[in-house]
């Protein structure tokens, strides 16, 4: 089997979502540690510009965004499913809400001054300043949610999540679904990276018990890989064929066009390449890179903007 390579760093909540999914599916993986801030030259040799964390690599196929990465891992190892049929729709909707709305409130709460002090304990002041400036640039200068709003929003979201746990062990039933992995990671950051702020979880003991169950899933086994080795693997591999996929055109952009794909918020570095596939749910670009060779970079349609490059 093509090695599963995760490009990530330990403190990334979205990476924790994928590490736990790998654990749930008992998939062994390779771990490439990437920088927390720009520049990320080895990552962008693979993605062509996309800089968010994490990124999944299977040979010369590069998958951006955890909603797509979760789908790919579920296809690779269908059991246990992340999308149990009886809750397929609702689990995806809760996951989307958690990855966007809960994540925003939780991180605004986690990154209040006490939280920053805890996350960056022992880190030189210059590095902390560089991190704060990098994230402000990613938000295009927009500030995080004010602390008062973050506090009331996060508390109310915790109460809603707790309500969902009153009759079963996981959010949508007796077994985990994608909803659990998406709701867990922002709360994991509160509990593990900003423990001095974790008292907010005390009002919802059902959540604390559920978090212990989620943590127990673990990350299965991983082996460290250097970023240059990952680039070599891409260079030595051919991307999977996509010419058999049904073309769904929502933009009036033909396959074979030179295009860019850009996240619709937070981290607006575009990836440019040839549009080689567009299905109902995902878009694929082919790129040539001096170091990585020919790669296919895959994005979900949700949350990304496709544009034709004018000649
Ligand atoms: N929608 C994206 C969000 C990913 C995201 O925001 N990741 C954060 C880290 S948890 C990030 O990219 N931060 C900036 C960076 O790592 O450069 C996904 O699901 O993968």
Explain how this protein is built:
By secondary structure, the protein is an alpha/beta fold. 42% of the residues lie in helices and 18% in strands. A 10-stranded mixed sheet has the order 5-2-1-3-4-9-8-7-6-10, with helices on both faces. A hairpin with a 3-residue loop joins strand 7 and strand 8. Helix 1 crosses helix 8. The chain binds glutathione. The site of glutathione has 14 residues, from helix 1 and helix 3.
- Give me the CATH architecture of the largest domain, please: 3-Layer(aba) Sandwich
Radius of gyration: 19 Å
Low-confidence stretches: none
Q: Give me the strand/helix succession.
A: EHEHEEHHHHHHHEHEEEEE
CATH topology annotation of the largest domain: Glutaredoxin
Strand content: 15-25%
Number of domains: 2
- Main beta-sheet annotation: 10 strands, mixed
Give the helix/strand layout:
Blueprint (H helix, E strand, L loop, with lengths): L3 E5 L4 H12 L4 E5 L7 H7 L7 E4 L2 E4 L1 H11 L11 H23 L2 H7 L5 H14 L8 H18 L13 H16 L11 H13 L4 E3 L2 H10 L21 E6 L7 E8 L3 E8 L3 E8 L3 E5 L3
Helix pairs in contact: 1-3, 1-8, 2-10, 4-7, 4-8
């Amino acid at each position: 089997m093509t090695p599963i390579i995760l490009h990530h760093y330990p403190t990334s909540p979205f990476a924790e979502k994928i590490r736990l999914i790998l654990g749930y599916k008992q998939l062994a993986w390779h771990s490439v540690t990437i920088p927390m801030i720009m520049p990320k030259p080895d990552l962008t040799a693979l993605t062509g510009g996309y800089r968010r964390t994490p990124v999944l690599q299977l040979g010369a196929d590069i998958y951006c965004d955890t909603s797509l990465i979760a789908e790919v891992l579920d296809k690779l190892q269908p059991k246990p499913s992340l999308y149990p049929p009886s809750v397929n729709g609702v689990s995806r909707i809760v996951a989307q809400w958690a990855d966007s709305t809960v994540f925003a409130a939780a991180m605004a709460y986690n990154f209040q001054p006490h939280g920053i002090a805890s996350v960056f304990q022992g880190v030189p002041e210059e590095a902390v300043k560089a991190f704060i400036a990098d994230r402000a640039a990613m938000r295009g200068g927009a500030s995080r949610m004010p602390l008062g709003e973050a506090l009331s929003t996060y508390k109310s979201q915790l109460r809603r999540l707790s309500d969902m746990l009153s009759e079963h062990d996981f959010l949508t039933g007796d077994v985990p679904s994608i909803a659990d992995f998406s709701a867990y990671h922002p709360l994991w950051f509160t509990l593990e990276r900003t423990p001095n702020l974790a008292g907010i979880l005390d009002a919802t003991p059902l959540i604390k018990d559920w978090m212990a169950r989620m943590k127990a899933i673990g990350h299965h086994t991983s082996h460290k890989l250097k970023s240059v080795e990952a680039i070599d693997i891409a260079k030595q591999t051919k991307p999977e064929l996509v010419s058999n996929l049904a073309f769904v055109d929502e933009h009036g952009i033909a396959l074979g066009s030179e295009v860019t794909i850009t996240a619709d918020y937070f981290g607006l570095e575009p990836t440019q390449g040839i549009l080689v596939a567009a299905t109902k749910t995902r878009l694929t670009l082919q790129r040539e890179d001096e170091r990585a060779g020919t790669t296919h970079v895959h994005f979900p349609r949700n949350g990304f903007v496709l544009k034709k490059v004018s000649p």
